[in-house]
Design goal:
289 residues; mainly alpha; MetI-like fold; two-stranded antiparallel sheet; 13 helices; globular
Length: 289
């Protein structure tokens, strides 16, 4: 009896959390799937349409453009944010007054709400009163509007992600760096290993888990981002920065076609699962090599 009771004890302890997870995650997923199979206008379920909403979403040029914009933004934002966060973590690894001060400075954008930070950058990038005009003016580009040009608008969107989320990457990677025993680097120095060799042979292998967690967290965040494009660029100019979640938002709350919005949401959810699975597989394969 004692062994049977012990076997069920972990499940009893996990039951409240699993129940909350089912209510907050599984419940909305099932409701969203039900909506996606119906013609829903203004929150009123009219008729069953099967997978017609999925077909319409996949055939929409605007949705396909949003998927492409999301891919471009996510790749650039992920690579640059991770690289900047890793560089900051390596730079500020050693404890000291300067390092402590700079860590606090780097954390300031991350502590600011995404809405407030995006509005601040929108003001900085504005042509009328922004600081970008003061910088570009002496170069003869004072009349160029950063947020009105498709290329520079996307660059501003990526900069918004770097400016805020590099602090998160720094925190996660700095924790991983602190967990590496200093004796390993000391022994490598005694054996004549240089800084690059120590980084490649000691730091990177022992940082696999923090790197994986950071990449997964940033990737899911960027693929599902809404606040940055909604506030900073509004998806413009045209639809040059309209990411898939912003398109989903407009389908549901501007066009009031909730069936299509839920169909797109479920497809994005599946894409998220696939991306995480691919990333996990790549790290597992790298760990066996």
């Amino acid at each position: 009896m004692g062994r049977k009771a012990d076997r069920w004890t972990p499940w009893k302890l996990l039951a409240p959390a699993l129940l909350v997870e089912a209510v907050l995650v599984l419940g909305p997923l099932l409701i969203g799937f039900w909506y996606s199979l119906h013609n829903v206008r203004f929150f009123q379920i009219r008729r069953f349409v099967g997978f017609e909403n999925y077909a319409r979403v996949l055939a929409s040029p605007e949705v396909l453009n949003a998927l492409w914009v999301t891919a471009v933004f996510s790749v650039f934002a992920l690579v640059l944010t991770f690289a900047l966060g890793f560089a900051l973590a390596v730079w500020l690894e050693r404890d000291g007054r300067f390092a402590t001060l700079m860590r606090a400075v780097v954390l300031v954008p991350y502590m600011i709400a995404m809405l407030v930070g995006s509005m601040l950058l929108k003001w900085l990038f504005s042509q009328e009163a922004g600081l970008s005009t003061l910088v570009l003016g002496p170069l003869g580009l004072g009349q160029h509007s950063i947020l009105a040009d498709p290329g520079t608008a996307m660059a501003a969107l990526v900069f918004n992600a770097m400016w805020r989320d590099s602090a998160f990457a720094m925190i996660m990677l700095l924790a991983g760096l602190k967990a590496i025993p200093p004796s390993l680097h000391l022994a490598a120095r005694v054996d004549g290993a240089g800084a690059w060799m120590r980084f490649r042979r000691i730091t990177l292998p022992l940082m696999r888990i923090p790197i994986l967690i950071t990449l997964v967290r940033l990737m899911v965040h960027f693929v599902n981002i809404l606040t940055f494009p909604l506030i900073l660029t509004g998806g413009g100019p045209g639809n040059a920065t309209e990411v898939v979640v912003l398109k989903m938002f407009r389908l549901g709350f501007s066009d009031h076609v909730l069936g299509q919005a839920n169909a797109l949401a479920l497809m994005v959810f599946v894409v998220n699962l696939a991306l995480v699975a691919i990333l996990l597989a790549l790290f597992r394969r790298a760990g066996r090599v």
